[in-house]
Amino acid sequence: MTAEAENAASEMNKTSETLMENTITTPQVTAKTDSQEPDEAAQPVTAAEVLVRCLENEGVKYVFGIPGEENLDMMRALEKSSLRVIVVRHEQGAAFMADVYGRLTGKAGVCFSTLGPGATNLITGTADANSDGAPLVAITGQVGTERMHLTSHQYLNLVELFEPITKRSKQIVNPDSVSEIMRIAFKYAESEKPGACHVDLPTNIASMPVTPGPAALPLKKPEPDVENASLASIKRAAALISQAKHPVILAGHSAVRNGAQGALSAFANLLHIPVINTMMAKGIIPYTSKYSLWTIGITQRDYQNQCLDMADLVIAIGYDIVEFAPRKWNQNAGHTILHIDTRSAHINKFFQPDAQVIGDISYSLQQLLRRVEPKEEPAEFLEIRNQMRAEYESYANDNSFPLKPQKILYDVWKFMGENDIVISDVGAHKMWIAREYNCYRPNTCIISNGFATMGIAVPGAVAAKLVYPDRKVLAISGDGGFMMNSQEYETALREHIPIVTLIFTDGSYGLIKWKQMDRYKSSCYVDFTNPDFVKYAESMHAKGYHIERAEDLLPTLEDAFSQDVPCIIECPVDYGENEKLSEYLKAKFG
Fold it and tell me: Which of 121, 139, 201, 558 could form a disulfide with 112 if both were Cys (CB 3.0 to 4.6 A apart)?
């Protein structure tokens, strides 16, 4: 191995031993033992109080939700705690805030609600977190256990309701079990693959005393062990890579979650292997890297599909099939595939790896780099990259109005710093963000592409700004998705969280209209009217802007981010570009 490769391997060793750059670490609150303060466990405490102590012990800093009659005891306990309670205007917003908080930090975001309709409002955000691999714990209030066998006002079996959309859903029926149930919930939520867990707390159990002693204390939170891949699997993988003439890396969200960006960049750069990332792995390798082939994920065949077609080996690193279905890039199931992740591959007839390397991703890449010689420069792939970049840059000076989505995102990229964060809602603009908004680092462009949920951008931006108060946080939404959770602008104002939302306005559900036009050449049932978004912002004591010329977007972004209140920017968009893109890609790639 060359000296350059040895130095890179040494650096990757350091990478594998550190947390990913964009992960917030919170100091662990150590559970107090009888020897430290013998009187605390002896004092009578309620189940609700123990639950809140468990949250503190898990390092929770924020809880998002709406109080109700059935969680009064928990509210009382929260009031006495060190936690910051973010009271929202809709429980769905609370779940999305917890979702994005968990995705950015790797620590479970916590949301809560009362029973019945409050709990059902948590479902969409909880399902989103579970599908997207974001750690989340949802806590619901519930009727007393003495009423559950009866037809009761607002009663639903929430444990069964949440089971299909969580990793674990449990009800507390014994006050002495609170600490165990909470520790298990966080363990499941934060372990690979991260996701959502649900805890249901009946109102009578919440007020019951917990037996003094161990039951009244939070459980210890152990540090997770890192498991490394077997030498045999690494040797098999090294042989596959060595034999390949035109390998391509397909990087997914697990590589981001597990802090493998440094190792992956070194692996690609030293071995001269091009990298395609999924929407949820944007920034896993800087888009400026010579070997970055940007993002795959839009419906149409694009440059990335062409590159995968040319590959004789697809090295799937942290790739989860929920992000982008393998049938969309391996329709004939003919690719040779190497799967590198912390978990074995999902079962899918279009994704059948020829070898799997299961364990810490950074360690696996380090070991492979020691055993594989660099490839020749991938000239054909680099030429495709040049075509992509030329197309991207061609919109830099396009001042047509309404603005083309390519131009909007070029200006946004030009304005935002390398560490600043864009939160994408779901709609036609998401496809353009995936294709046109480029990143230098992971977790600087957040896209929901497992569950792909409209309405996530505004509450998600609130959470992102709480995590990173010194960074610019921009929510980008369509006018459809924005109105689904725009009420959280009042939350942002009240909590002094100065987010900015850029709304692509066209008066329709643009993505569905795009699909209808592609399939039928006409559309139906997708159009609507909008409020005056400037006045809408002002009605909530925020600041509003309306873009009237392409040249106004950059100075408007500058002004909005100088404000100390939340801001809304309405930007008319020319979605005629949707159909033009479809026609262009069909003609180019079939």
Answer: 139
Within 396-532, residue ranges assigned H as helices are 405-415, 428-436, 457-467, 479-485, 488-494, 510-520
CA distances from 313 to 245, 250, 270, 476 (A): 8, 10, 17, 36
For residue 528, the SS3 value is coil
**pTM for the predicted model, two decimal places:** 0.91
First to last CA, the chain: 42
Give per-10-residue mean pLDDT for the chain (590 aa). Answer: 47 42 38 44 84 98 96 96 98 98 98 97 98 97 89 89 98 97 98 97 96 95 90 97 97 97 97 98 96 94 96 97 94 94 96 97 97 96 96 95 98 97 97 96 96 96 98 98 97 98 97 95 96 97 97 98 98 97 93
Distance CA 104, CA 88 (A): 20
DSSP 254-315: HHHHTT-HHHHHHHHHHHT--EEE-GGGTTSS-TTSTTEEEE--SSS--HHHHHHHH-SEEE
Query: Is 82 strand, coil or helix?
Result: coil
229 with 358: CB under 8 angstroms? yes
C-alpha to C-alpha distance for 295 and 303, rounded to whole angstroms: 9
Residue 116 zone, left/alpha/beta (φ > 0; ψ -120 to 50; rest): left
Token pair for residue 277?
């990332």
